[in-house]
Amino acid sequence: MSSMDLSSPGAFAMMAAKCPCCFNPGTVHTGNITAQSKLSALRVLMAERNLDAYLILSPDAHNSEYVSSCDERRSYLSGFSGSAGTALVTRDKALLWTDARYFVQAENQLDGDLWSLMKMYEPGVPEVNDWISENLDASSRIGMDPTTCLKSRAVEWQYSWSIKSASSPTVLVPIRENLVDAIWPDRPEVPMEPLAVHPMDLSGESVSSKLERVKNSVSRTNSDVLVVSALDQIAWLFNLRGSDIMCNPVFFAYAVLDCRPTDTSAAVHLFVGRRSDSEGGAGWDGWISQDVKDHLSEASVTIHPYGAFDTKLSGILSGMVTDQKEEKKLTVMVEKTSCSVAIADSITASGVAKLKETETVSPVENFKSIKNEAEIAGIKSAALKDSVAVVKFLALLTEQISDNSNELREAAVCDTLISYRKSLDGYIGDSFPTISSSGPNSAVIHYKPETGSDQERALSTDEMYLLDTGAQFLDGTTDVTRTVHFGSPSDEQRRCYTRVLQGHVGLAQAIFPCGTPGLMLDTFARAPLWNDGLVYGHGTGHGIGAYLNVHEGPIGIGGGNVPGDIIRSNPRMQAYYLEPIEAGMYVSNEPGFYKDGEWGIRIESDIVSEVVPENDSNEKSSLFPYGRTGNRAFLRFQYMTQVPMCKKLIDISLLNEGEIKWLNEYHKGVLEALTPLLGNDGRALSWLQAETAPL
């Protein structure tokens, strides 16, 4: 490649850039900071660096989906607060790409005079790199923060631009100092919250055991070193939890593992404390509790300041080379889906190592996704506790709306739900901001109620109400959605709800060979809606952590909402929806339907895959009366969530006998599980009995 070969060492050597501290926002921001003044200030910095465009990506330096408030750069610049999206600012345009979950939200939040909404995967809408190829000159310079841009994406884009113009292609220009930070005068403080040990009775496996499994897996690929940057992977691997990102019990960190087979314990390095400098700084050592130090010492983990990662990585790799009997470059494995341009460049620039990207995800991600017995026990406990809170909450809403005792508004009622959760053992906080949406707001897939905003509505007996909520407990993470109607739903609402319910039940009942990808299971949930010509623009299921992130890889159930040619051309989508489902994976089941501007429906429960028992030698199984064939075990789902469906929204005439039987058995189990836990709460017990009565 004649211009910039992103696959070669040093291709992303940092260009000189003016320090953000040297830029005075006051020279551009005069008076109130507006959407226009932000773009103007950014374009001043772009012009200084001779950039034709600047990319603002959603993730932080660890490719996190949910980020700390200090990393919400795209949200600050554009006004769009959804968790997924990419902004591109050129000299005269500003564009925002996001997916169908956020179309309505983005239309409401973006200033339409300044920003253009690019609806991803819709016909005729190009992807970001294609838009750049089609609308900017061939030799354009596109600035980006190399800590937030994936190495794999950069290589992919650079290659596509080189095809258009081999002699003078468009190039990505890495600028380490983020330009949005430079125009953000009141940027929130970088967090550095305390770390806590996640105990063995909940984690189910020691740090030493996890490290051994990971090292063996990496070594089998002929790799010497593993660099881990994904925060939930690090939290799982070291049995630690934090609170640096709202609703996610993670902490900012990097890890470096020496995975070479040796007679002695190989080195493991953990970099923590984001506000620390290369030497740690005042108070860094004291910030780490003795309990955490002892915990890591047992696994022979060396702790470093987070701020030393860039400078120490090269030295750590050089030291490993010195220890080798023969001189050769180390092979450093990084995860394709989380390794940034900056990390990749640091590894290759060391001069002693070569980069090896995983085909999909790292061994840590795969091991983390398969829950052990202790984690599954914790998940069951957390789901049961949270179901109690949700049932009490829905019973209270039903009573108060029915007697018109006081006005209930979308945002305010969330505090009531939190108060119920706070009374539960092990409750830490919510796993994401609750989606409490009434009427037309329920058609906004990821709606977030804001007290006093123009969009906030009062709950009503005349409208659908959608509650999507989750909690973090010490023993597990939950994510549940129920849609209800407090009055008399229309025939259309009942039919659509029932189709969504049939899809939900279809996936819950699925039996399939181990290793089946989520793309194939997706049809169980969508088929009943397709029969009525209905679609929903989001995935059907995502992985969930065990007291970790509510959205977890590597698995996803979905793909039916986009054409096959898009999946075929999208490696990230392929990796997500083609990941094999194995026993012990914890996922959501959440089909839906949304009538824009009127109402929305979603039913979500948490499920864990398990092996279907083999036939007993003396008795034929009711599932496999003549035995199974093939050499793969079959899986089914354990249903964790214990919250009833909305009976008045069910059109029983659409259900078959198997669906009615499943619902009646499920509701019977819910009643039996929750009745002892509701104690003397007569309101909740009465509501539960009514909602779980047989169809």
Describe this structure in words.
- The chain starts with 34 loop residues before the first helix and ends with a helix.
- 48% of the residues are buried.
- The protein has 695 residues and is α+β, with helices and mostly antiparallel strands.
- It has 22 helices and 28 strands.
What's the quick description here?
The chain is an alpha+beta fold and 695 residues long.
Give the biggest sheet.
Answer: 6 strands, mixed
Q: What's the total count of β strands?
A: 28
Compute the separation of the termini in Å. 67 Å
Q: Write down the overall mean pLDDT.
A: 90
The largest beta-sheet arranges its strands as 4-3-2-1-5-6
List the defining traits of the structure above:
695 residues, alpha+beta, 6-stranded mixed sheet, 22 helices, 28 strands, disordered N terminus
Write the layout of secondary structure elements.
Layout (H helix, E strand, L loop, with lengths): L34 H14 L4 E5 L15 H6 L7 E5 L3 E5 L4 H7 L6 E4 L8 H8 L5 E4 L6 H14 L6 E4 L4 H4 L13 E2 L2 H4 L3 H13 L5 E4 L2 H7 L2 E2 L11 E6 L9 E5 L11 H4 L2 H8 L3 E5 L3 H15 L6 E5 L6 H9 L3 E5 L5 H7 L3 H30 L9 H11 L4 E4 L4 E4 L25 E6 L1 E3 L2 E2 L2 E6 L5 H18 L3 E2 L4 H13 L10 E3 L8 E6 L6 H5 L2 H7 L8 E4 L2 E4 L3 E4 L2 E7 L22 E6 L17 H22 L3 H10 L4
Helix pairs in contact: 12-13, 15-16, 15-21, 15-22, 17-18, 21-22
